[in-house]
């Protein structure tokens, strides 16, 4: 016998006509207005979102060693700047990603199930990308459809795909992406097993909530998130099949993910797509070289946000070796651990052509929908502009060309990293 839920009873059809969102969201809007960096947005998200939802966003795998290392790795890189460069703001941040012109050299990574964080979901991220003139990435496990995104974002778009077993499903999804105006494909190859996210296990994570006593108590504590959830339609995975409810994610992934997917399958996929394609999840130079030979146009250096294999390397650490392996002409995207505009500058200097951010914009989404995502990208834009100006580089190409001489590795010390009282002392970044 299926569980009776508020959505099955049609509660959302009644609540959507009762505009209480503004009342419940007033404290969240005040917090969002005061946020000055991504660490602040993280705290705003934590204050508004249900605990199991926030922890799903915030967590890494196992002991979260890779999660911490991914952030700390940037602290070991010093910026050796030039002076008297004759520059004035704003600088030129334009570049190309997947061969398409964009106004920013960073973008929001494709991430699953955005509507669990805020009712606007992927539409908020698409509106923010349109606002900033950046690339938009849509996950094949999105809770908003390809057509809906196409109506919002007119610029370059990349569609992310997992290694599915069902080739007919793959063909169907690829056809939708092409029809929806997506310029590029990103194949995620580090998700052949589901990572061990222990915060989710402890929280009894489920979509939607299981209506246990603990989850209902937490829902009462987070009224803005809860009213969003109860007053809108239930989630579904709109890019795959509208009939697959979001609460079937684990079962669907387990039935469709193909651990046996190999290089031959990847070559078949590239043939079906027939356009620019990136391989997402590369951390080894030899895999990058093979990916180029297979036909991928873009290497996407990523460890899935430190959510898959524990003690996988920090992506900024392996980036230079991958650039050396594939040479100067192959496009490289890097994501992982980015919390500051200076982190983006370091990645561009060390071999990346562009940088993906996941948690930063999702913190903004969970904190305040479209306004939160716009603010997250704006924070990073301003920080990157400032970092480049102080480094003495006028544009992205200049940063990439002169980068290796600007970034030096140093031995780390305890002073580099925040302790548990750092936020109280005014230290903004890198707090877990």
Note the topology.
Layout: H1 11-15, H2 21-34, H3 38-48, H4 51-58, H5 65-75, E1 77-79, E2 95-97, E3 100-102, E4 106-108, H6 122-132, E5 136-139, H7 146-152, E6 157-161, H8 167-179, E7 184-188, H9 198-202, H10 213-221, H11 223-230, H12 249-256, H13 263-273, E8 277-282, H14 285-294, E9 298-301, H15 315-326, E10 331-335, H16 341-349, E11 354-357, H17 359-391, H18 396-402, E12 407-409
Parallel strand pairs: 4-11, 5-6, 6-7, 7-8, 8-9, 9-10, 10-11
Antiparallel strand pairs: 1-12, 2-3
Helix pairs in contact: 2-3, 2-11, 2-17, 3-17, 6-17, 14-15, 16-17
Question: What does this molecule look like?
Answer:
- By secondary structure, this protein is α/β, with parallel strands linked by helices.
- It is 44% helix and 11% strand.
- The chain contains 18 helices and twelve strands.
- The protein has helices spanning 11-15, 21-34, 38-48, 51-58, 65-75, 122-132, 146-152, 167-179, 198-202, 213-221, 223-230, 249-256, 263-273, 285-294, 315-326, 341-349, 359-391, 396-402, and strands spanning 77-79, 95-97, 100-102, 106-108, 136-139, 157-161, 184-188, 277-282, 298-301, 331-335, 354-357, 407-409.
- The strands form three sheets. The protein has an eight-stranded parallel sheet with strand order 4-11-10-9-8-7-6-5. The chain has a two-stranded antiparallel ribbon with strand order 1-12. The protein has a two-stranded antiparallel ribbon with strand order 2-3.
- Strand 6 (157-161), helix 8 and strand 7 (184-188) form a beta-alpha-beta unit.
- Helix 2 crosses helix 11, helix 2 runs parallel beside helix 17 and helix 16 packs across helix 17.
């Amino acid at each position: 016998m299926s569980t009776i839920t508020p959505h099955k009873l049609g509660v959302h059809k009644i609540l959507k006509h009762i505009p209480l969102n503004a009342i419940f969201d007033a404290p969240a809007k005040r917090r969002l207005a005061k946020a000055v960096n991504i660490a602040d947005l993280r705290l705003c998200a934590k204050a508004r979102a249900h605990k199991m939802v926030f922890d799903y966003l915030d967590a890494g795998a196992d002991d979260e060693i890779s999660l911490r290392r991914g952030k700390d790795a940037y602290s070991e890189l010093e910026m050796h700047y030039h002076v008297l460069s004759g520059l004035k703001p704003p600088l030129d941040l334009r570049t190309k990603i997947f061969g398409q012109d964009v106004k920013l050299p960073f973008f929001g990574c494709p991430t699953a199930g955005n509507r669990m964080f805020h009712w606007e979901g992927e539409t908020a991220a698409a509106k923010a990308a349109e606002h900033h003139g950046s690339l938009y990435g849509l996950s094949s496990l999105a809770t908003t459809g390809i057509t809906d995104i196409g109506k919002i974002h007119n610029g370059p778009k990349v569609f992310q795909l997992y290694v599915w077993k069902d080739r007919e499903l793959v063909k169907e999804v690829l056809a939708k992406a092409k029809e929806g105006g997506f310029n590029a494909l990103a194949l995620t190859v580090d998700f052949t097993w589901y990572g061990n996210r222990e915060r989710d296990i402890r929280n009894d994570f489920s979509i939607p909530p299981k209506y246990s006593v603990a989850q209902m108590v937490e829902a009462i504590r987070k009224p803005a998130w809860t009213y969003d959830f109860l007053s809108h339609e239930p989630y579904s995975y709109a890019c795959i099949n509208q009939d697959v409810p979001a609460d079937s994610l684990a079962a669907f992934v387990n039935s469709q993910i193909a651990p046996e997917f190999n290089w031959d399958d990847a070559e078949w996929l590239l043939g079906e797509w027939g356009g620019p394609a990136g391989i997402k999840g590369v951390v080894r130079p030899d895999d990058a070289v093979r990916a180029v030979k297979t036909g991928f146009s873009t290497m996407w250096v990523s460890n899935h946000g430190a959510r898959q294999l524990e003690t996988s390397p920090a992506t900024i650490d392996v980036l230079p070796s991958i650039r050396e392996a594939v040479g100067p002409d192959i496009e490289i995207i890097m994501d992982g651990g980015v919390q500051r505009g200076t982190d983006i500058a370091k990645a561009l200097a060390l071999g990346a052509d562009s940088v993906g951010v996941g948690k930063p914009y999702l913190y903004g989404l969970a904190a305040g929908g479209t306004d939160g995502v716009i603010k997250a990208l704006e924070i990073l834009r301003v920080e990157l502009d400032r970092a480049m100006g102080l480094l003495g580089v006028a544009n992205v190409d200049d940063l990439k060309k002169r980068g290796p001489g600007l970034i030096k590795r140093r031995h780390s010390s305890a002073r580099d990293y925040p302790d548990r009282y750092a936020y109280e002392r005014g230290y903004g970044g890198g707090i877990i």
